[in-house]
């Protein structure tokens, strides 16, 4: 596979609900190892677009290629196994399990998935469980949740649950991650933790990130590229600097606002 091919290609994707377009003829490429922001007003279709890419909803028209493979029509778990993972605006965690347990069940090739192996190769199962625990503990330390390892996930704050959801996603070792408003509901310290982790992974393992965000300062600071979505359509694409000076974007979205929460 050539490295200059986009890791994700969205071509002519459209989706309507009750006769109204939520996503209309959207086209863009995401380059491998990049950090891309998807911005736009509420109701523009950003989360619906994420749903289409990750298999939580099916497009009416168009193509979606991940690593040059069509993923339209695939269920979410199959898309995730291909290396395309996603976190949610409202995090999904196992409230009755500890924070550490939440991460261990997200490990690839979790031993408990194969009941027969518990009897046939118990030593191998034990070894993989130890490796999974070590990886989970390392991930918690990266996201500054190590002190919460033995706490039930249901006791975490909203911001901490978002960090845990991100940790769950990263434990699957994806090649691309979609983040839906990762900063919402977080204090300043937790916000910086999320983006420090993103930049670290992008630099070290070349993980690709696409995130929805309303904070233009975060977009300007962390994104390499920006997509602007308004009324179901992507109206502009470019560097953060180019986007903030694009007349189409200013007229349709930013207005007189330049920085802060949009």
Automatic annotation (TrEMBL):
Pfam families, alphabetized: ABC_tran, BCA_ABC_TP_C
Residues annotated as signal peptide: none
Keywords per UniProt: ATP-binding, Nucleotide-binding, Transport
InterPro entries, alphabetized: AAA+_ATPase (IPR003593), ABC_AA/LPS_Transport (IPR051120), ABC_transporter-like_ATP-bd (IPR003439), ABC_transporter-like_CS (IPR017871), BCA_ABC_TP_C (IPR032823), P-loop_NTPase (IPR027417)
Top-level taxonomic group: Bacteria
Keyword Transcription annotated: no
Domain ABC transporter: 8-256
Record PANTHER family: CONSERVED COMPONENT OF ABC TRANSPORTER FOR NATURAL AMINO ACIDS, CONSERVED COMPONENT OF ABC TRANSPORTER FOR NATURAL AMINO ACIDS-RELATED
Family assignment from sequence similarity: Belongs to the ABC transporter superfamily.
Protein name: ABC-type branched-subunit amino acid transport system ATPase component
Organism: Rhizobium viscosum
